[in-house]
Amino acid sequence: MIRKPLTSRGFEAECLSMQAPFRYAFSRLYFTYMLVGSPPRPYYLDIDTASDLTWIQCDAPCSSCAKGANALYKPRKDNIVTPRDSLCMELKRNQNARHCETCQQCDYEIEYADHSSSMGVLARDELRLTVANGSSTESKFIFGCAYDQQGLLLNTLAKTDGILGLSKAKVSLPSQLASQGIINNVVGHCLTNNVGGGGYMFLGDDFVPRWGMAWVPMLNRPSTDSYQTEIMKLNYGSSQLSLGGQDRRVRGVVFDSGSSYTYFPKEAYSELVSSVQEVSGKGLIRDTSDPTLPFCWRAEFPIRSVADVKQFFKTLTLQFGSKWWIISTKFRIPPEGYLIISNKGNVCLGILDGSMVHDGSTIILGDISLRGQLVIYDNENKKIGWMPSNCVKPTTFQSLPFFEG
Description:
Elements: E1 11-17, E2 31-36, E3 41-48, E4 55-57, H1 86-94, E5 107-111, E6 117-130, E7 136-150, H2 153-156, E8 162-165, H3 173-179, E9 186-191, E10 199-203, E11 214-217, E12 227-231, E13 233-236, E14 239-240, E15 251-255, E16 262-264, H4 266-276, E17 284-286, E18 296-299, E19 316-320, E20 329-333, E21 339-341, E22 347-349, E23 351-353, E24 363-365, H5 367-370, E25 373-378, E26 383-388, E27 402-403
Parallel strand pairs: 1-27, 3-8, 4-7, 15-24, 16-23
Antiparallel strand pairs: 1-10, 2-3, 2-6, 4-8, 5-6, 6-7, 9-10, 9-25, 11-26, 12-15, 13-14, 13-19, 17-18, 18-22, 19-20, 21-22, 25-26
């Protein structure tokens, strides 16, 4: 499912340690937890680098909420944010909503690309942070008190309590903490390739490796607060895939941890599908009866994991910065980064047609393709970086606020 609408200290999350249960029978949901309120209570949140607002299901009262992992957040009257708050006005500006002079609360409504939605009011409460040395600190932050959820989003809320907004927007959690001087505005996550899931994430720049990272410039477009960069070439093995469009120029890439799958523009997707069809001559047989994803294959032997069939597929390579391979920056996606095993025991292509997603010409890298990589969004220096990692534990370079599940 795809949705669209941290010298300061940094922190890695007690708030922000990750687990990875299945979102559906065939896709993972990466979530962390936050300690909110006084006394602090835990809330499980879907980590989403393409969402602006953090929101938690709440009893305001709630008109449409899923059961969730924890009890609904219960706001007090003095928690409710007024329409004149600067972050309320910023949120309304991004949503093209009209300012209400007589309203006593700041309402919001977010619709995602799968047509699910969340509606509520903004609230302000304490966020408990645990520092690396074991001490704790608290910070006020603004989030959505969500009392009406609709669509497929309700499925994921059976395991979680809301969404953790990590975009570049001023209302996102990292931007709010940076504006308070608690962190530098840097976000990092590392999703493990392990079948059991797991990984870590952090806010702040103290976990940013001093070497080994590949960096590309972050696009700064007023129309979006998602993390984007430009791509020069896209290859499946040694075969170049078309990026679409008449001019055949560079196209955008969005890093979206809130999307289960990766999306290619129509031409690139069609050419990829044609290329992977060659596996039918290598012992895999297309199974059109499998409803998991558009393209699934069965084998003459039991498929226990992607490792059993990855030899039939090739690595995808996204090339940034230059059309010349020798001086360009590359993001490589091995078969483990775009294949999943369905409930039927088939191997399925976890890359989908993105012609109706975003602007139709943008590559969306979902969490399936971000696994096994430490990915960092450096809003201070306007760049995105990555490096291969087992995602077991970050290296601490300095003492900083630390979150551990």
